[in-house]
Amino acid sequence: MIALDNAGTRALSLITAQNGADVFVSFSDYTTATEVYARGVPTLTTVASATTTSICATPASGVIRDVDYVNIKNTFAGSHSITVQITSGAGGPFVLRTIALLTNESLEYTHGTGWTAMDANGNRKEVTASVFASITDSGLTSGRVVIAGTAGLLGDDADLTFSVNTLTAHTLTVSTGALNAQAGTFATTLGVTGASTQARINASGVITTTGTLPDHAASRTSMDHTTGFGRLFTNGPNATTNDGFQILSYRSDGSNFINLAEWNAAGGLTLPGTLTVTAGNILRGSATQDIGAFGSEWRTGYFGTSVGIIGTVSGTGVLAVGNGTAPTAQTDTVGFYSTDIAAGHTEPSFFCEGTQVLATGQADSASSVRVKMRINGTEVTLLAI
Are residues 245 and 335 in the same domain? Predict the structure, then answer.
């Protein structure tokens, strides 16, 4: 208890920094001569200014006043700093407690529990301005990310975990801004919902996926260039026919696109525009595969510099064909390849279907020009008159 005696003229007082507080004090008086306790009349005090107010007076001579309950309620509209102290003629004052209370919060004292701060709902206020080396919450699970739940209650979820340097989430939603990753992988699927400018995957390095990167349309993959060159995305193939695979380049605002290439099972790969190879080679898949047939686009086009098929090329606007192995049969086509006559000497070689391409008995003359070439495995000399 808080004991006040007459010899030291001790009393209980309250210092208020604002103009609002209601105080209730309960006590008992012990008369030393008769050794009798008498219940005192509780005091009720209203403080209406920033001042020092007595809230429990000094007892009479020969009496010890035991204060067993104090309640101080802040009625000021805002934070209010109050100080409870003991005044004494023998010195002091002696501060018992200083605290800041919000509107309708209370400071309470009982001889059993001491001083306690209560919020406006009557709940005990916990420490909010201390530093702890560690805090243990028995309601949390190791490895999970701590989140604030209803009314600020701490909690966690099995779908949001963290280990060493890896954050694992069931679903990650970025409503505004960007999702940036220095390096790492998405274990299953990264989903992006929205139009081209609202839902983008930006990468300054490499995007590697073993699953899918779906755009706002089904079976579509999108990679957005961050410097304004638009987007490169692919429409997924038809599940049955493997048709419908496209590579499209979108404008950065999503208003238009260019079809760069498309694939279908019947026609193979189609390039609507021009294929430019600035370095390296165009290679067939393996030694057992044909290079393939070039359609009208090849025949009516041109080579900007030079093209080498197997062989080495120099000059400009040249189609170079390297030495080949003579075919044994040809169907509705003419094979063209190069053959060595001798070291450092080549001749053009043809292989045609049938035998009528060769004719004998032609007359030679002084003005004729002889041109050697190999046709169907036989080296012949062509006469040009």
Answer: no
